[in-house]
Specification:
Blueprint (H helix, E strand, L loop, with lengths): L3 E6 L4 E6 L3 E2 L10 E6 L4 E9 L6 H15 L7 E8 L14 E10 L8 E12 L4 E12 L6 H4 L8 H14 L1 E2 L9
Antiparallel strand pairs: 1-2, 2-10, 3-4, 4-5, 5-9, 6-7, 7-8, 8-9
């Protein structure tokens, strides 16, 4: 059974329910103000919440792919080491804390990545959800990173206790439960964006 915790993000303006096994990395590492990051070192999984500038020049349906490509470029992941899978709208039932008129999309993508500039590559699935907040001029991105293959030469191998591929259905259900819990409690967070 997964024990979850309601996490207060951005000074309590946002709340999300993330399993207790994920720790807030700000307790030991500095992160940019627009991000909140939680990691589980035993599984090499992470949850990242980002408040990004809304890209009004990109259509709603293409925005999640756009942000994935930017993140991949910034991480210096070449085009042949990343791929976009399924992109689909998020239903009202999947994210009930937003009006039905707010564009919401989900995507499954994959990257071959090296940690800390190592030569060893791990294969990571990225479960992504994007909420487009037009009035707040914000694209809100939630990413669940799941290592599905860890190289024996990777530094991750030392801390990961379970390198067997995760049950994809249970990971998808976990991601859906995380995004379903997401709620903005105080929209004044976006006034200075």
């Amino acid at each position: 059974m997964t024990t979850s915790n309601i996490r207060n993000l951005y000074g309590g303006a946002i709340q999300i329910d993330i399993p207790a096994r994920f720790i807030d990395i700000t307790s030991f590492r500095q992160v940019p103000d627009h991000q909140e990051i939680f990691v589980d070192e035993k599984t090499d999984q992470s949850v990242i919440i980002e408040l990004l500038e809304r890209q009004s020049h990109v259509s709603d349906a293409e925005a999640i792919k756009y942000h994935f490509e930017i993140i991949s470029d910034e991480s210096e992941i070449s085009a042949e080491k990343r791929r976009v899978g399924i992109i689909r709208p998020i239903t009202q039932e999947e994210m009930p804390n937003f009006l039905p008129t707010i564009p919401k999309f989900m995507m499954l993508a994959q990257q071959r990545v090296s940690k800390f500039k190592e030569s060893a590559e791990n294969i990571v699935n990225l479960h992504m959800a994007l909420v487009r907040l037009e009035r707040a001029k914000t694209d809100l991105l939630i990413t669940f990173n799941e290592a599905i293959s860890i190289s024996t030469d990777s530094s991750s191998m030392k801390s990961v206790q379970n390198t067997n591929p995760s049950n994809q259905e249970s990971i998808e259900q976990l991601f859906k439960s995380i995004i379903k819990s997401f709620i903005i409690k105080d929209y004044s967070l976006f006034q200075n964006q």
